[in-house]
Amino acid sequence: MDFPKFGRWLLAFSFLPLYYLVQWFSDYPALIETYYSRGFYVYWSEGLRFVLGRFPISVGDLLYIVIIVWGLIKIRKHLKGKTPVKSLLLFTGTAVSIFYLVFNLSWGLNYHRTPLNESLNLSSALKDSLALFNLTEALVLKANVLHKKIALDSLSAVKIPYQTNEILTMGISGYEVLEQKYPLLSYPHTAVKKSVFAIPLSYMGYAGYLNPFTLEAQVNQKIPAYRLPVVATHEMAHQLGYASERDTNFIGYLAGIHHPDLYFNYASTTLALSYCLRDVYRESPKRQQEFIALLNPGVIKNFQESNRFWEMYQNPLSPYFESIFNRFLKMNNQAQGVKSYGQIVQLLLAYHAQYPA
Q1: 4: pLDDT confidence band, cut at 50, 70 and 90?
Q2: Other C-beta atoms within 10 Å of 327: how many?
Q3: Does 54 share its domain with 141?
Q4: Using an 8 Å Cβ cutoff, are 65 and 57 in contact?
Q5: Each residue of 187-238: pLDDT tens digit?
Q6: 317 and 330 share one domain
Q7: Among residues 84, 112, 140, which one ends one of the domains?
Q8: 167 shares a domain with 100
Q9: Alpha helices, DSSP H, located in 258-296
Q10: What phi-psi label fits residue 128: left (phi over 0), alpha (psi between -120 and 50 degrees) or beta?
């Protein structure tokens, strides 16, 4: 028997046992939290950010381009009859298995760590209508105050005076303040960059993403600038090893409201408000309209700016991109899929029950 060849086929078909091994580990979140998320991953992620943060362009994006070109060359050779089917299957299976293994070792196991509310000792808050309405009203008032301080009138939309690279660099300041309250959210060595794939990301409906192999945070610089601060802090939360979109939305919000800069405060507050308003609509469309009527016209203009941007990039493939991402999240221990973004409201209610907005 040709053992080297047998080993290659064994590796090519190792995806399934690897998948079930990861699922077995998912039954032990405390183990993953202690030894992976707060152990190995901390040193691994800080080391990568320290090294790759020195490069102005996303190394991860360039890596993806190389992999895509390489894959296309392999497919082209096969279509021309130069690559046997058996060899193509061996190559594909091996690539998928290695990809899955490295993905989980580098970052993916964080999907199975202890939920953030337990780590931050946030008691569960009942999501009753009154609590939701009170929080939404508080966020409306806070958004209006921040807006007035920045825009100096109630009618103008907020325009951020910073360049994109400045915003991405400034994000760390919010974490420096936040870690005084929650030391586990310490964020040394920033590596947040503009994405090479900004236009494709816009058509796919993504404001940013984390490269799970290089652990660089990519931000879609095409989105309205007033949203960029909270997108940056959201992706930075992913770099800290929080995979749940609910948790990273919340951490990004906390980093924004603790930030010394008013633009970061405004971006985070309006993001939280947008999610609360969605939940209010499910409870009472009439109450949602009442809250919207309380907002400064300039705040509404910023919301409209964001809506127009995403409408501009709507395309026939948008539902498919969302469906693929939804399945990816569900496969990685996020049962609610893309709906998990909106679950930030549960954490907002729990947090602001202790620290009023």
Answers
A1: low
A2: 12
A3: no
A4: no
A5: 999 999 999 999 999 998 899 999 999 999 999 999 999 999 999 999 999 9
A6: yes
A7: 112
A8: no
A9: 262-283, 285-294
A10: beta
**What is d(CA 175, CA 170) in angstroms, rounded to the nearest whole number?**
10
Strand order of the sheet with strand 192-194?
192-194, 217-219, 208-210
CA angle (188, 193, 197) in 5-degree steps:
150
Distance CA 320, CA 258 (A): 37
Same domain, residue pair 99 and 191: no
Structural domain range at position 33: 3-112
| Residue 326 and residue 213 in one domain | yes
How many domains is the chain partitioned into structurally? 2
- Pick the more confident residue, 90 or 60: 60
Please identify which residue in the block is written with the tokens 């992913």: 238
pLDDT grade, residue 323 (50/70/90)?
low
Predicted TM-score of the model (pTM): 0.89
What is the three-class DSSP state of 195?
A: coil
